[in-house]
Every structure is written in C-alpha cells, then in structure tokens.
Amino acid sequence: MAGSVFGDRLPLAQRFAEHLVTSGVERGLIGPREAPRVWDRHVLNCALVAELVPNGARLVDVGSGAGLPGIPLALARPDLRIVLIEPLARRVEWLHEVIADLGLSIAVERGRAEETVVRRRWEGADVVTARAVAPLARLAGWSLPLLRPGGLMLAMKGDSAPAEVERDAAAVRKLGGGIPRIERAGVGVIDPPSTVVVVERVRGAGSPERSRRRRGQA
C-alpha cells in the first residue's frame, strides 16, 4: 500500500515518520498521543492528497507546522515544487533539519500567508494546501491571493467539512473562489480516506457580478 504511494522513496517516508515520533514529539510539533498512529493519520493521509495535485505544480503549504501535508507530498511527488510557510521559529528550525536529513529540495519561509511580503514572494502558485489551519473562509482569505487564476486551494478537513462548506461558501465566493466542493483522496487505500475541500480561484477578491448589478441599477 505505502509502496504504491511513495515508490522508491518509501524509506524516506519512513524516516520522516521517525522524525515525527521522536524529535517532532519532543519539540512539540505533534502530540505524544499521535505517535502510535502517525503513519496512517499523518504521513500517508497527507501523501494521498497528491491525487488532486496537477503534474509539475508549484505548491505552497500554508501553516505547515510539522511539514504536513507538504513533506509527504514532496516524498510522493518529486515533480512538485514546494514551499512550506510557517510562522514559528522553532518549527521552521525543525523543518530545515528534517528536509536536510531527507535530502529534499523544499523551500521554507518563516512568515504568515497573509503578510504582504510573503504573498508577493510566493503568489502565482498552482496549488495551496493547508491542514487544520483555520476555518474555511479565513483560510480562503489567506490562500486564494497566493494562487494564479484557475489554481486550487486544497484544505484538508475532518468531519467538519460539510458544515464548513455550507457555512462559508458565500464568503469564499466573495474572496474570489469558486463553489467549494468536497473530495475524498485515497479511497480504497486508507480508511477513512482523506477529506479535502477544493476551491478554485476564479477571480480576485470582490464580486464582478455584484459590480455589474450595481452599474445596471445606476
């Protein structure tokens, strides 16, 4: 199962899992209770999101934390160009150490996606990923400006996904996103599969449709 996802990089994925359950726990990047289920719940769960990522994509991982999902995606898909955005210095230090040990070509940016300097440096991405970072509308406000038109925000969510989509769909559209949809990645590979809310960037923030209506009323 894991071999079909990671191929000849499976040993690197296993080494990443070892980092998570040792120094990752010691330095507070994941909780100690997560260690026994780190493979299915974190590493494999994140890597399977690759099913939704186009070939050769430039991908920005927002609020990367312990490199999830960015590092598993890099291990599963060496064709991707990935940057991890993380605001906390201790996490950034850990990410640099792990990436160097695994020999991966991944950039790490210390900062927040909503900061102007970060946005200008990494805008135009094909894909923005996030896992357990923020509610959908807030996340869209941070992520959509980083995307090129037609790019995809892939937000990993749990059981809250349907409720978030229903609650935040209108706000997402005002921010320039399309109608959010829920995808399941890894069906038949892991149980349960990964739940991902997918939003396409269709325009800039604000609604041209609303502007046209206003002009028509003037």
TrEMBL record:
Read off the InterPro entries from this record: rRNA_ssu_MeTfrase_G, SAM-dependent_MTases_sf
Q: Which keywords describe this protein according to UniProt?
A: Cytoplasm, Methyltransferase, rRNA processing, S-adenosyl-L-methionine, Transferase
Pfam families hit by this protein: GidB
Record-listed S-adenosyl-L-methionine binding positions = G63, L68, A113, E114, R131
One GO biological process this protein is involved in is: methylation
Sum up the protein's function in the record's words.
Answer: Specifically methylates the N7 position of a guanine in 16S rRNA.
Q: What is this protein called?
A: Ribosomal RNA small subunit methyltransferase G
The gene behind this protein is: rsmG
